[in-house]
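Worked problem 6 (solution included).
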Amino acid sequence: MNYSILTFGCRVNQADSMDIERELRQRGGCAVTTSCADVIVINSCSVTATADQGTRQAIRRASRDNPAARIVVTGCYATRCPDEIAALPGVVAVVHNDRKEQLASEVMTTADRYSGADGPCGAPYLLDRTALTIRVQTGCEEHCTYCVIPSTRGRSRSKSIANVVEELRRAESSGFLEVTLTGVHIGAYGRDLDPPGSLSDLLEATILKTRRLLIRLGSLEPMDVPPTLIELASTGRVAPALHLPLQHASDAVLTRMRRPYVLDAYQRTVDSVRERLPHATISSDIIVGFPGESDDEFQALCGYLESSPLTALHVFPYSDRPGTDATQMAGKVAGPVVRDRGRVIRDIGQALTTRFKRSQVGSVRQALTIGDGSTVVTDNGLRLRLDAPRDRNERVLVKIGDHDIARLM
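Solution. The predicted structure is:
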């Protein structure tokens, strides 16, 4: 069977797609382009209305370009609106997030014939990727007023430390040098286990049981960054690259969002990371145009960001999500105002990124070659062009130069 996987949204979806692909290859499936696939798996996102639209467009495009293909849709949009997805052209199955682990077998049942090789195509675990993403947790119980994810992912559920460590050992033995651990609320990792554990416990076990994997972390809520985690990021085995969503710098807006912190607490966390890890990248998510966002609240956001130690911003215009509390809030911000505010924050984010990159010129970092070997990603998350190409998936030491150039040491 020939298959193709299209993934939308967060790193959790990326990790889920990697798991699906690994199982399909182990069952003899071969990855091909969408136009040649017997089965097309679409892993959907529903964090915004734009994400929903992107999934619908992808389904229609896949059906138009490959009318014979059977389309299987999973992910958050498929979980939230299964009937809406099922009515789209070419869709033969809609798989709830809770059944993603059985998706490979559902994909196989949609194929009229088995056209794959007698065994896995290519390396059974490498999946033609330089770095692997592993989901260690799913679900969220925070219930922010703008977010639909708790209803599509359910309660927080963690894989056991033993299972995660075994996945990481298998990844290392397959040739991976870097792995990203991700989750919907990864900072809640282990709280549901018996006995309870923590993300720090998982990282400590990983460092002990693997030899040289560099562990990257997915998005961490700011209230989930204890001193022990910062210390682990200084060992050289956990990447000094953190994504800490702020969402807004006005305490009044944070309260309306039902975020479980205030700006002062966020500042203390970010400042402690910067003090202990001066070369770390610290990126953040920002929502502009949240209901009731006043000019003064927006200026408070701009003022903090401009003076912050953050290094990159992911900017999201507020989007009503059916069933969330924010949809009922008064004071919706006009579309043109939201777009203008988004542009302002993106410009601030670009200035922060430029400032950080300049601060790193002349520093020496470990890095991993990716793509065709002419590009590297440093341990602190900078993507740079290599002055002398090497083989793919090779760990190298580089000196950071101007204009996004890295020189081999």
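Discussion: The radius of gyration is 22 Å.
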